[in-house]
Amino acid sequence: MPNRYAYLGPAGTFTEAALRALEPEAPAEALVPCSGVDAVFTAVREGQVDGGVVPLENSVEGGVTATTAELINGAPLLITAEVAVPVEFTLFTREGVAFADVKRVATHPHALAQCRGWLAANLPDAETHAVSSTAAAAQAVVEPGAPYDAAVAARIAGERYGLCALAEGIGDNSDAATRFVYITRPGPLPEPTGADRTSLVAFIADDHPGALIELLNQFAMRGVNLTRLESRPTGDGLGKYCFCIDAEGHVLEARVGEAMMGIRRICTDVRFLGSYPRADNGTGGTALRPPRRTSNADFHEAERWLARIRTGEAE
């Protein structure tokens, strides 16, 4: 049977655009919209689909709480790819609706936060209403007896539901982007490319002065750069936190592998989320140059040096 892919729906979301970027050859019938991030994870975990795409972080609004929570809890899944999608918003209406007619605007809360300035300047008297996604907002505008006059949504959503673009590029930040990740059930890792990212969750053993520094030092002393560090409650009571970490490099690289062994020794648990090719604004990552004395060759030479000492060989 052909592969099937779940994504945060309905049809027309930025997540669908991300999935199409990751799987450009997938036919429309292979794309399965889900009502929420948790539903995407459930579909993947239960084998209803071969993989799924969910938003992980936004350059303006930060991490997506629902995705992070699912990665931390439940049966472990693996991130095998990522893509960064530029976030460009358009004000869509039904045919014949003019600017002066727009009194009620629907959109997702993240989109509202990123277009608040434009809306205040151009539609100061319009009411804004939060819905489950930008695509759901576009869908609501075309429904019979729609309670909304316009939707702030992605171009893919407006085209999907046959709406008219009243204003384009209405986001307050022209550089805004959302990072999406492709999740699968555990299996073989993607091969290292030289421009990779490793994601994990670290559960600190106990709360004491310097606990976070001890964790970060495992990466710093091996020349591993961190690209994201986010604390999240474990759910075991107030003051109990774990740390979601993205690091440059692949787990098959010596410096990254040794850093992971180091944090495994000082933490009660470490959940490995995957090593996968890095994406930079959707253009693909550029090869990284490890800091001095932290290449695979440097680590392997140190291992051989220690082995000679342990076996009594002459220096």
Description:
- This protein is α/β, with parallel strands linked by helices.
- Among the domains are: 90-168, D-Maltodextrin-Binding Protein, domain 2, CATH 3.40.190; 188-315, 2-Layer Sandwich (Alpha-Beta Plaits).
- It has nine helices and 15 strands.
- The chain has helices spanning 14-22, 37-45, 65-72, 109-122, 134-142, 155-160, 211-220, 254-266, 296-310, and strands at residues 5-8, 31-34, 51-58, 62-63, 78-86, 90-93, 104-107, 127-130, 150-153, 164-168, 177-184, 196-204, 226-233, 241-248, 267-277.
- Strands 1, 2, 3, 4, 5 and 11 form a six-stranded mixed sheet that branches. A five-stranded mixed sheet has the order 8-7-9-6-10, sandwiched between helices.
- Helix 4 links the parallel strand 7 and strand 8 (127-130).
- Helix 7 (211-220) runs antiparallel to helix 8.
- The longest helix is centred in the last third of the chain and has 15 residues, at 296-310.
- The protein is elongated.
Order of helices and strands: EHEHEEHEEEHEHEHEEEHEEHEH
Identify the overall geometry. Answer: elongated
- In CATH, the architecture of the domain at 188-315 is 2-Layer Sandwich
How is the CATH topology of the domain at 188-315 named?
A: Alpha-Beta Plaits
What structural class should be given to the helix and strand makeup?
A: alpha/beta
Q: Tell me the total number of β-strands.
A: 15
Number of helices: 9
The residue-averaged pLDDT reads 90
CATH class of the domain at 188-315: Alpha Beta
Task: Write down the Rg.
Answer: 23 Å
Low-confidence stretches: none
